[in-house]
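FW: tagging you since you asked about this chain on Friday. Here's the raw sequence from the shared folder, copied in full. Didn't touch anything.
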Amino acid sequence: MNLYAVYIIKEYLKKTDYDDNSLNLITQQITTEYLLIFTSLLNKGNKKLSYEILIILINITYTKQGEILFGEDEKVIKNISTFLVNNKNDIKLLYLGIFLIKHITYKNPLVKQILQNYKIISFFEEIYEKYILDSNFMENLIKCLGHFIDSRFDKNKNILCSIKIIKSQLNKNTPIDLLEKYVHILYNLCFYKDPIIIKKMIDEDIYKILINIFPFDDNIISKLNINQNMNLKYINDEDFYDIEIAKKILRQLRLLILKILGNLFSLEEVLYTQKIIDYNISIFLNQVLKFTDIKIIKNAFYCISNICLGSYGQISNLYNNNTIIIALNVAKNIYETIISKNQFINNLLKEDFICALREIDYSFSYLIINSLFEKLIPIIKYDNYIIIHLLLKGIQLFEDNYQEKKLLSFILKAISKLLQYEKSNEDDTKEENINLIDLLGKNGFKEILEKLQTNSDEDIVDDAEKIFDEFFDDNNNENNLDNIDINDIINDIQEEEEE
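HL: got it, structure written out here
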């Protein structure tokens, strides 16, 4: 009878293709009491019943009501925890159970606390090594562990050991779908940029392996793991199904590698990040910047921005290998595409370009703030001051977005540094001066500053006011003229003539 009732619910959801209306309708009918019954049925020893229940529970978690339900009765979480422990040797049920845990812990701190009370972390540690080479399972388990990043999970034990195990699977002979899954596990491990994990990954030379396996060639694709066939082959034009899937996996692999490298550079200890710099990361990035895929470009700039947050020696490596000039040329193309509204096929593609510009502006803001002027001035003047146009466009796009206040702050700090330099060198020849005030004035920066002074963020307002008052306030300029003594000027002229 229990199996029949569960089957009816599952078939209803299946017929409606698990659409939002159907899920919401079912969830509204399921009270905490029903959820308690469902989860207690998981531990009746009927694997078929447990499988069907898990499918329903996972789908319920996709609704807002479902997110709340799981934290209302501790017994519900206890039942799920007991089920996982009792089925640790059944990979199929365990996989679904871990998938469910991943969902219910994502936004519910109460559920995480209850699970920790039932020693779920110790259970994770127990199954970690057992299934370390099952990439599908590990992908979800790592995401679960990420939700408990501040818990008692022993990072020095299982996670750090797993990096070495996964490392052994990363080579050019690994089928590309498996390679992507292993790299995805590494990405999940360093997602929260935990210093202990980042250091371990650098110590294990993960960056070297990722750079070496990065697939630059679209024409050479490993055979997908279809029907357990693990052999490599060149995919030909006739094998359309394999090609389309392989291209998606290939793209995802590229993105993941770049995201991991960017996260490795988030470590503030230069002795570690310098190792990646010494492995010719700038030459690697020069090659990556040749791609036309906007998401790949965006993640390449994510790496560059984190490098520019490091030591000046690391930034110099980008200068010396022409990476900055190559990046500026790529950024210019993105800028021109954004300002040409007819270039976008759809809003989603436009959003990708704007996100890329965000990383570009972070990169060049950090570059300006942390560079020496002797290196910086040619970059500022390059291609009709394209770097200034990029920064101004970033302000225009993100000035009303509260979540981007950090970016706005860095852009303003970068421009302020350039203005201070110009002010301190205003007596230099035109070749040495960057003529920034005139350029900014012609491009509406004064009006931008006036608008930013009404921003909801106090720090942005303060930064904008300081720049405006010092460099763009006409009243201040008039006051400065009023304070000049005309007799002093006459005396100076007379002295020059006598000499």
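FW: The longest helix spans residues 373-398.
HL: agreed, and The domain at 1-151 is CATH 1.25.10.10 (Leucine-rich Repeat Variant).
FW: great, closing this out.
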